[in-house]
Write a structure and sequence with these properties.
By secondary structure, the protein is α+β, with helices and mostly antiparallel strands. It has seven helices and eleven strands. The strands form three sheets. The protein has a five-stranded mixed sheet with strand order 5-4-3-6-7.
């Protein structure tokens, strides 16, 4: 069965561009972004993995470690990194699993045979410090991912995990958030000293709580 939200992210030990890594040990207390791409030396993947590398610092600010996967060998990843550096301004600076045996791809359901028979599609798994899967995304080969959106959802997950809030449509860091309908108005006044406005009893908005 496909991996679902709330499942423990399956652990694995695999060869990567940074040596042998066990996922849970690598992540430690951090959040994790595990993602797959279809193939090395392909155009969309080159732009995506370059942007993940350029923006590693923005993930680090969110206590989030990156790890990528494809069914290409590690030696191919290393050669491709030179092209990523040349064309995107930053080569690989996070581990990329060489999953020739498809162990990780099968564990995470990263191969969607009706889309691509022999390679991983563009999957994203956000993993919390408790090793639970918090969010999944799947894109076809011809649509590149949006790193701003991935950072945005990590912000939303971390905020909603720390406070009794949810994020409304198109929310971005700094915007108002929704107070959990489970909280009474009295409780909400105590927990959200910046105040809140009530549009409906179930829709109360408050300035973003301090992180
Ligand atoms: C790409 O990254 O551009 C790509 C990879 C695999 C299939 C199609 C496109």
């Amino acid at each position: 069965m496909a991996i679902q939200l709330g499942d423990t992210a399956p652990d694995f030990t695999a060869e990567t561009t940074e040596g042998q890594i066990s996922l849970h040990e690598y992540l430690g207390e951090s959040w994790g972004l595990l993602f797959s791409h279809p193939a090395d030396f392909t155009p969309v993947c080159t732009t995506e993995l370059g942007d993940f590398a350029r923006r590693k610092g923005e993930f680090a600010k969110r206590n989030t470690k990156l790890i990528g996967v494809s069914v290409d060998p590690v030696e191919s990843h290393r050669r491709w990194s030179n092209d990523i550096a040349e064309t995107q301004g930053q080569g690989l600076n996070y581990p990329l699993v060489g999953d020739e045996g498809r162990t990780v791809a099968d564990l995470y359901g990263m191969i969607h045979p009706k889309a691509i028979e022999t390679a991983t599609v563009r999957t994203v798994f956000v993993i919390g410090p408790d090793k639970k899967v918090k969010l999944t995304l799947t894109y076809p080969a011809n649509v590149g991912r949006n790193v701003d959106e991935i950072l945005r959802v990590i912000d939303a997950l971390q905020l909603s995990g720390a406070h009794a809030v949810s994020t409304p449509v198109n929310w971005k860091d700094g915007d108002e958030v929704i107070i959990s309908p489970a909280l009474s108005d009295d409780e909400a006044k105590k927990r959200f000293p910046k105040g809140f406005r009530t549009l409906k009893p179930y829709l109360r908005l408050t300035p973003q709580p301090d992180k």
